Amino acid sequence: MTAGQRSEASMRICLRISGSKSFRNAKRIAFYLPLADEVDCLPLLEHAMDLEKQVFLPQLPGRYPRTMDFARLDEDTLLENGPMGTTQPCRRDAQVIRPREIDLVITPLVAFDMSGYRIGMGAGYYDRAFAFLRLRQHWIRPRLVGVAFDCQLVPGIAADPWDVPLWNIVTETTSYPATRIF
């Protein structure tokens, strides 16, 4: 995709999510700051802040331990460079929330399948942070919503036992699984 195509598709994804019941009902939403080829959800993040929702960003500690926290983002939050080319809230000033307390998590990915499995950047941060969701009979919260471009859909992903499937994946044209009401 060209930069212009990515920008237009990202905006369509943001509009689809902002119109969803899950977004409207969420009080605490985790986002990410996009890398060059990822879906740019900054307009959705800004919209959430305008609606006075609590917004959080992932905070990575470095290479080990491979845990991920979520730190509050507001107009006074200082950002720093994080591992793997990420930008994150400064660790020393962060107001951190437990993953279980988040209502909606906007999740980046490299590839996905129609079953809700994703391939990320390969470090397993999201799978470890949300491992507790694998034990649930019913999905309450947080709702993990992957954002992707249509071209990132693959026929199938061989899931490992530790993989946490996404609740929904939103692209510029549709949602997967299509049977789930977003």
How would you describe what is shown here?
Helix 1 runs parallel beside helix 3. The protein is built from 4 helices and 12 strands; from the N terminus they run H-H-E-H-E-E-E-E-E-E-E-E-H-E-E-E. It starts with a helix and ends in a 6-residue tail after the last strand. The chain is 19% helix and 22% strand. It has one domain (3-175): Rossmann fold (3-Layer(aba) Sandwich), CATH 3.40.50. The strands form 3 sheets. An 8-stranded mixed β-sheet has the order 6-3-2-1-7-10-11-12, covered by helices on one side. Strands 4-5 form a two-stranded antiparallel sheet. It has a two-stranded antiparallel ribbon with strand order 8-9. By secondary structure, the chain is of the alpha/beta class. Strand 11 (168-170) and strand 12 form a beta hairpin. The mean pLDDT is 89.
Short description:
By secondary structure, the protein is an alpha/beta fold.
Which key terms come to mind for this protein?
182 residues; Rossmann fold; eight-stranded mixed sheet; two-stranded antiparallel ribbon
List the helices and strands and how they pair.
Blueprint: H1 3-18, H2 21-25, E1 28-30, H3 42-50, E2 54-59, E3 69-73, E4 79-81, E5 87-89, E6 96-97, E7 104-107, E8 111-112, E9 118-119, H4 125-129, E10 143-147, E11 168-170, E12 175-176
Parallel strand pairs: 1-2, 1-7, 7-10, 10-11
Antiparallel strand pairs: 2-3, 3-6, 4-5, 8-9, 11-12
